[in-house]
Amino acid sequence: MGGSELSRFLQPHLQTITDTIQMMSEAAPVGLERTEWPEVVTLGDVVSRQATVAGMVWSGELPGVEALKENISAYFNVLQGFLLACHGSTVGAGPTLHKYITTSARGVVDSSFSLFKLAVSAYESGNLDRKTIIPPVTGTVWEACLALKKVPTTNCIAIGRAMTEICVCLKDVLREMKELPTGDSTAEKSSSGEADMILSDKDESSSDVEVDDDFTEEEIAIAKLIITVTSDSLAAVKETIRFITSLLKSSGNKRGANEDKVESMENLLSCCNDIADQVNELGACVYTQDPSEMKSAIKRLYNGINGMCKEIGDLGGSPENTFAAFGGFEKSLGALEEEIAKDVVNETKNLTISQS
């Protein structure tokens, strides 16, 4: 009887938190007073301690139903306060910073829900394993609260981190490219003349790469050029990150500095995302060898480079190394375009000869 009573008692608490999370789908109005992130982290520590208490209560010698209700109420009151502070910290947050904040908050909520749903379920069913199954779930709350300390605190830092994540994705694509059946396991040279380190990992030997007899010499040539494009796209994003970092250093990394440039920086990030998406499309084209798809991806990559140049200009920058990386990127795209056009001409000639 007590178990079903606790389940009913828990439900409205879960719903209140769910409603609060939904409210956080949009950043708090600019007119409100902003909650500083260290305050959110402090409240996260309080949630973590409450999770410890809950874990001990629900996995130990169980008290009466009223005491368990008090534990639920206490925990979810603290969790609600934490979420309201998270929402307050989104005042002035751009889309990227807002996403980092809400994602971290949802991590705390999801782990908390898992803890109490499991605890109440174990109580209802009289599960004798609760002493072993509840502590690990309590640990997930600790981890979610600890992760709050790694959340970026400014729009600039958030955008820079998102760009770094794009770099990681591009590096992964580059690793996959090394495994392509091109018959050449050496590091591809980028148009800037630098070999990407990702293609020379010590744990990957040349024997890992096998030649696929189904690939023609022309297709292998295109595959190698796509590898170069991927390498140069990575170099371009890296230089963009260096540019963003220089903005942070010039402002002393203080909150409020460069906030008037957030829109342009968000647009710059969007261009980086588009470039990563199109590089992925080109990677898939290695197997399909569809000229129209490759041309479409190349056109969008050119647009991405132009967009990045524009946004950097709007940010008041003219970084030589960054623009040089963009130039190398455009050069490799041009080489790929030429190879595709040459293959199309050759195919047309072969088709004409076969028909005659």
Please tag this protein with its features:
about 350 residues; mainly alpha; 10 helices; elongated
- CA radius of gyration is 27 Å
What's the helix count? 10
Derived structural class: mainly alpha
As a percent range, the share of strand residues is: under 5%
Question: What is the total tally of β strands?
Answer: 0
Would you list the SSEs in sequence order as H and E?
Answer: HHHHHHHHHH
In short:
With 356 residues, the chain is mainly α. The chain contains 10 helices and no strands.
What secondary-structure arrangement, pairings included, does this model have?
Blueprint: H1 2-23, H2 37-59, H3 65-88, H4 95-125, H5 130-146, H6 155-178, H7 217-250, H8 262-288, H9 291-314, H10 320-355
Helix pairs in contact: 1-3, 1-4, 2-3, 2-4, 2-5, 3-4, 4-5, 6-7, 6-8, 7-8, 7-10, 8-9, 9-10
Description:
This protein has helices spanning 2-23, 37-59, 65-88, 95-125, 130-146, 155-178, 217-250, 262-288, 291-314, 320-355. The protein is 74% helix and 0% strand. By secondary structure, it is mainly α.
